[in-house]
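Figure 6 in text form: structure in, sequence out.
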């Protein structure tokens, strides 16, 4: 089983940038994408971005496209989520996911 750990969250102001990281320990058998999700207070968890196994194919939620970039190096992990032009609506706990495994999340708070 793989353990995913997110880091990089924090309190920022609207318009600021922040980069989240997702690292993994243990042997992963997952061959599908690595994903970022988020859950805002009182809302359902929602998809944010994914990077496919090849490492060069990504896709994004319309709400973050053009502002967020998911990336990684030559290995499956770590995976990064570079967030720019942050808005108060981006306030959420951000989770890393692959297959059935989830991290504990890292909190991002964007003040107006």
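Output sequence:
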């Amino acid at each position: 089983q793989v353990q995913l750990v997110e880091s990089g969250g924090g309190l920022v102001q609207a318009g600021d940038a922040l980069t989240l990281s997702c690292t993994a320990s243990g042997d992963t058998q997952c061959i599908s994408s690595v994903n970022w999700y988020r859950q805002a207070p009182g809302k359902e968890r929602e998809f944010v971005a994914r990077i496919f196994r090849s490492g060069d194919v990504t896709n994004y939620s319309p709400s973050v496209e053009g502002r967020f970039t998911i990336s990684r190096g030559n290995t499956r992990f770590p995976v990064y989520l570079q967030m720019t032009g942050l808005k108060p609506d981006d306030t959420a706990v951000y989770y890393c996911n692959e297959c059935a495994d989830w991290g504990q999340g890292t909190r991002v708070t964007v003040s107006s």
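Caption detail: The chain has no helices and eleven strands.
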